[in-house]
Amino acid sequence: MNESSAPATIPAFEERLLELADRLPKRLRQCAEFVAANQDRIAVSTVAEMAEGAGVQPSAFMRFCQIMGFTGFSEMQRLFRDSYVGGWPDYTTRLDHLREKGGETGGGLLAEFVEAGRASLEGLLKTVDLQVLDEAVATLSFARVIHVIGMRRSFPVASYLSYAFEKMGVPAVLHSGLGRLDNQNAIVEGDAVLAVTFSPYAVETMDLVEKAMERQIPAVVLTDSTVNPLRKAGARLLAVSEVDFGAFRSLSATLCLAITLAVAIGTRRLSE
Amino acid sequence: MNESSAPATIPAFEERLLELADRLPKRLRQCAEFVAANQDRIAVSTVAEMAEGAGVQPSAFMRFCQIMGFTGFSEMQRLFRDSYVGGWPDYTTRLDHLREKGGETGGGLLAEFVEAGRASLEGLLKTVDLQVLDEAVATLSFARVIHVIGMRRSFPVASYLSYAFEKMGVPAVLHSGLGRLDNQNAIVEGDAVLAVTFSPYAVETMDLVEKAMERQIPAVVLTDSTVNPLRKAGARLLAVSEVDFGAFRSLSATLCLAITLAVAIGTRRLSE
DNA sequence: CTGAATATGGACTATATATTCTATTTTTTC
DNA sequence: GAAAAAATAGAATATATAGTCCATATTCAG
């Protein structure tokens, strides 16, 4: 029974499990089988629960963890918890470290941002609600004109959407809030609003969407969580959670969802 | 603050969160916002971790749980652990699944764009020239004012850079080309130019950079290949190759490089 | 069948974590 | 601007849970 070192990834964990499977005594094999069939439970259960599930005593389960190479259940659980949250590290503290060290090279910083972007994209696949996405596409495809709005951090996204629509020949207007003009009156029946807004929500954006909704103009909102005041008003919410590094969101996932939305709308329009 | 009964489902939980969101004191609102943006973490984190994430004391987070209607954190966590049905397939499986079944619906498109974004980010790490990056950071850190320019597809990137600089207190001007004014005269000795441009290169951008270089104003150019007319003129070129899907580039890599540049400049300025 | 080796169950202990309490600060109200 | 109310931070406490140990049971070799 070599103890070696603990698996560092889930594939490595599975490897190990497979390798041990046959030469394990009864109770420990029960553990192995239960774990194999219920991997996901490890992250959210206690030893007692896992042991009960496997039909063994907690202490037997502990031995199983140790034979797998971990010091105990907690260490094994950490592997699954971390991989569940996509290894989202605490970027804020890491950035602080970078700041303190000061002389960090650009390469290290780049790696951090690439990692944040990658994690965001993966998270997007997991969390996006395809039904809402399709509904949003439908809503916006029928619009006479799409009014795009986004301030501050969301402005790059809004301008990219606007560029994409332009390129595909979809009628769209980018509301910039320039000079505090909100061009409310330009939004007429048959149009639709596509807003991009992240907490803290820009008042200009919230205002525009709210006023539009009051007039029965449909609205789609790209935002950071489904808990957004605009939901009460009846807007379709597309939630994207970005991993942020320090004070900066990567925007990768948001832009990705934005371009998907734009292209889907563009093609849908063409075919009708 | 009525205690009523605890939400029994996640939608009910969200409802409650939304309902409370505005009439919550500072710290508790921080909790609400963090929870809204990181719902999935609740199942696998401790109060201490959640509190740290939200930037509050554990006790504040406990109060938040109670106001949400639970007796404490454990009860709230149970809701999320129970509803964590698991079986969340990993990134690749999910991607394949979306590609196959997604087909014409939004899902298939999304999978393609996510993949394009991810590939771009990976490519970025491999191809970026760290030495040039560090030189670019040095050049721009010493500038009195950074003049940012980017048209069409590059405009979102330019505006994001401009936003990031603003947030970090780095003096920067976004040249939009609005009304065909190029504000050449605003660029004076001691300043620097940061241009974003992809083939086909916008004349406004090329003009601005060329004229600046003639006057010995240093320029950094974020572009798609090292064969760019501006190199001859002496600009520092940062090349990014984006993977594109259909007619659309993902921008992920470009934005990632842009934010790295911005943050590196911001921190460098602070430390000098 | 007997003795050695191994596996198991369950009680015990250590520790991590949730929860509560209170002094202090901040905000609100008059 | 002072008093009252509410909110907050941090220490103190309670509790749930992981981890250990050992007596007993089981398996295996000869």
TrEMBL record, chains A, B:
Q: Which InterPro entries match?
A: Homeodomain-like_sf, HTH_RpiR, RpiR-like, RpiR-like_SIS, SIS_dom, SIS_dom_sf, WH-like_DNA-bd_sf
Record domain SIS: where: 136-272
Which keywords accompany this UniProt record? DNA-binding, Transcription, Transcription regulation
Residue intervals of the HTH rpiR-type domain: 11-87
- Taxonomically, the superkingdom here is Bacteria
Q: Which chain regions cross the lipid bilayer?
A: none
Q: Does the keyword ATP-binding apply?
A: no
Keyword Transcription regulation listed? The answer is yes
Instruction: Show the Gene3D superfamilies listed in the entry.
Output: Glucose-6-phosphate isomerase like protein, domain 1, Winged helix-like DNA-binding domain superfamily/Winged helix DNA-binding domain
The record ties this protein, via PANTHER family, to: GLUCOKINASE, TRANSCRIPTIONAL REGULATOR
Q: What is this protein called?
A: MurR/RpiR family transcriptional regulator
Organism expressing this protein natively: Rhizobium alvei
Q: What is the lineage of its organism?
A: Bacteria, Pseudomonadati, Pseudomonadota, Alphaproteobacteria, Hyphomicrobiales
